[in-house]
Amino acid sequence: MRTNIDIDDTLMEAAMRAGPFSTKREAVEAGLQLLARKAAYRDILALRGKLQWDDSPLSAGATDISSSTALTAHSPAPPPYAHSASAAPKATAKKARSK
Question: At what angle do helices 24-45 and 9-18 cross, to 10 degrees?
């Protein structure tokens, strides 16, 4: 896409020195790629703690990675303390301690 924009000369000089760019276009494209990559990293970091990974080694007979599931994401398992039956004993123990 052809676009004409007014870029601060000092900022462009700093960008040209920051990387091995031979043209202003290369510097601008690298900056745009950096912004897109940063947004992708932010999206990935938002998933932290929400996925469980199965990274067990491939079976001995599997040679084609595309046919096996080397890494698979699963919905997180419910925590072991989420059962309502286990909440009652904790409540009674708490009352006993407060007396």
Answer: 80
| Each residue's pLDDT tens digit, 56-95 | 887 666 555 555 555 566 656 656 664 444 444 555 555 5
Cβ(7)–Cβ(27) below 8 Å: no
Whole-model pTM: value is: 0.49
Please give the helix or strand (H or E) that residue 73 lies within, else none.
strand 72-74
Where do we find the tokens 């286990």? 86
Phi and psi torsions of 34, nearest 5°: -65, -45
Query: How far is 98 from 21, CA to CA, in rounded Å?
Result: 69
The tokens describing 42, both together, are 């932010």
